[in-house]
User: Fold these one by one.
Assistant:
Number 1:
Amino acid sequence: MICFNWPLFRKTFHIFGQFPFVVYSLSIMLWSLGEAAWVFHLPNYAEYKGRSPSEAASLLTAMGAGSMFSRVFAGIAASDSNIDAVLLQVGLSGLAGTVSFLFTVGSSSYMSQLAFSYFYATYSQGINTLIGPIIINLLGLPHVAVAYGIVCFFCGLGHLLGPPITSTLYKGSGIYEYTYVFAGACLVLGSIATALTNIGRLNTSTQEI
């Protein structure tokens, strides 16, 4: 028999009352919306641009190379007490959004598509590494497990909605580039939302003082 865990419910409700955490969850959802649109449509978009199926698939390999570098670099940077993980995510998400916008006008050749895929992953994938440290900074260690689960829910929601939204966008417009304009807009908005997380955290700290 499953019993209702009232202390856990109170902890979860308390977390949702923390403005910086709520905004951060929104930023992760926006990031995952853009991320899902990018990855899901990349092989099809490359074939749409004239690439062969094997060339289109190799773009994901380029993303994997950038992802490995990004995750390790972000972890090392976040371990430095002089670097704010929130500001680091603001920069990474904003740069990933910029790469997405540029991808729509500069991806005519196979080599340029490889380069864009690599640099996009270099900027976007480090955010995976930053989620844990940022949650700790926002809420403290006692709330990490519940908060991480909530953030993963919003991340999953973005991955659930991103591909069908962009598929509908392409179906309605017939212009595949809009997929990456949408992805770029989500990533830039996610960067802005992350910045608001820092502002909210500073305001909360000021009120406590």
Note: The radius of gyration is 18 Å.
Number 2:
Amino acid sequence: MSYTLDLSGRVALITGASSGLGTQFARTLAKAGAAVVLAGRRVERLKDLRSEIEAEGGDAHIVGLDVTDIDSIKSAVAHAETEVGPIDILINNSGVSTTERLVDVTEEGYDHVFNTNTKGAFFVAQEVAKRMLARARGAAPGTYTGGRIINIASAAGLRTMPQIGVYCMSKAAVIHMTKVMAAEWGRFGITTNAVCPGYIDTEINHHHWETEAGQKLISMLPRKRVGQPKDLDALVVMLCSAQSDFINGAVISADDGVVAV
């Protein structure tokens, strides 16, 4: 006897798919059977990822997307649904951060983080949800009503961390946003949940873990290690699956037990 989570027949849009967690989410959902739409600004990198997924027998497509541009969001979602079909799953993953103390934050830096992490995430979810809601109300074609929205927040949205205060604030807003979306859209069969990763080793921060400061931080973690992108695979697939239908508005930490560092 075996137990599987099968996403065959589902279409998943992954933002920020050109690197880091977004790339891993795309690979994982494709392996679970979903047709994945890779969205991001670095289209050449998305092409490489598409080739990799297709070489392993997966179904992958590309749309250019700048989450800080509302017109780009509308165009990307429309293109995805025209080319692949109605979006059943959204992995709302795009995000940026800066490292600086609050007294050094500029308006430009503040807007850069919030426009991507909070405003961008909101309007991507809104655009996808509008189409999910239309199908649920019978106002748009589609064999599957409802949907799955997974907002990628952060452990930094659940606690304060020095020198990344604006990032913490932006991800805290994403967590609250998730709960409101769950409350408003849940009755239409749309579940919205947030995943809050802790310290994960990606290409953006990989060099840091090899520095003296990085090694010091690792020594303070409960199990003296940082996570790998694949450590989130089972959680994300579960939240995308039909078996997660009773999970709505959840804020799930995936931080290896970090309390405060």
Note: The chain has a mean pLDDT of 93.
Number 3:
Amino acid sequence: MNAPASFLDLVWLARWPLLYGLGTTIAISALAILGGTVVGTALGLALTFGNRAVRFVARLYTDFVRGTPVLVLVLASYYILGTIGLDLTPFQAGVLALTVFCSSHVGEITRGALQALPRGQGEAAKAIGLTFRQTFRYVLAPQALRLGLPALVNTAAEMVKASTLLSVIGVAELLLRTQEVISRTFQSLEFYLLAGLLYFLVNSAIERLGRFVERRVSLA
């Protein structure tokens, strides 16, 4: 009975560092998902509707980023950009790296979803006088969202897991805070399990949000 009580006491004493780390993880993941979705949507449009030169550049970017390990992107964002005068904080470099990584995946998801739609829908929208922006907003985007939503949810969950790599550049996210607590308490198994539970809860919330959005768009 003493061991569980002792561990709970340690968790209570370490609650603020762990909560700070959890908040940092959520903030980084949310910013990366938001930025990656915006850039990735533009990439998907370029891959689908751009001219040959635009498609080539978008494809080169997408394939290069998808073929690069996330850890390399993280280190490059922090160390290489610093050598050319772009000094980013660890937090900023981490957000940039995950945004770039997320955008490449969202771009491919968007491209696949758009190309899966019948071509006649876009032609019909053009025939009734809709601009490209109106066609995308009211005709193509809602249907593409339905098709790509499961993959987008998986990508969002991957961003949360990828955020653990930011500890190598000193970002005080959940994993680094957990390791700092372990270095003081020497209860590695218990605190790593606790961190795993917190990551699971965050990804579970993302999955539930995805299901909610899926229900809403299915009724639209």
Note: The chain has one domain: 19-219.
Number 4:
Amino acid sequence: MVEDVRDNGRVNDADQEAPETPRKDPTADLPESSAESGTSSSSEESRGSRLYPRVTSFRSRRGSLTDPQQDAWDRMWPKIGAEVSDELLDTTAWFGREAPLIIEIGSGTGTATAAMAKAEPHVNLIAVEVYRPGLAQLLQLVDRNDIPNVRVLRGDAVEVLEHMVAPESLTGVRVFFPDPWPKARHHKRRLLQGPTFALIASRLKPGGVLHVATDHAEYAEAIAEAGNAEPLLTELDWESPMTHERPVTKFEDKAHKVGSSITELIWGKIKS
């Protein structure tokens, strides 16, 4: 299931700008309404997901917006952004058209998201991210490059898949450079484990595609094992409905120069 190995590197741009330890106030980077109520996607550790009891697979991150980012946020967020909720998405109404739907989990600062959306104008692309400055940078890219087929959700991607996405409605799911949580005691925080593969598979249409990339060798092995164990996923032996070409971000380029490598894994959902 490993499509290729390329010398690139760590790409979750947001991770490169984030502190290594969680902030003391876990609600500091949450929407005001969530912080006040005490419930949000960042409170998963205490209440658990409906999928399975878990802790979050992402770090809380500090980050204030620059003036240009705030301007882009103020103008673009009401048009193409939304907070994660329990309401099923009406993507036809949100995008203003019917088109193949792809979800990217963990879009970072959106460099790859914007480039891939521009290269695939025939698809609707939803980027899911918890890091507000990263989303603001994506909004800037969408605005600057006039990319009409991107929408953004802020919050936990598992919540999105569980509550906001209908079964067998996705053409593709992309997970590029999820946090590897390298310490053994933190492996429970990893996003890509058996239950998440089952959830993603249930949301893919027959023939839909899951594309994963990681620069962490041990995590790549664990991902491959969990993905290959999911009975609804199989080796992709038909023409993919979405591109697998990713632009190289600046962080990948830096990692390339020091010899880091990337593992790409691609599965298709079995056809009925």
Note: The chain has one domain: 2-269.
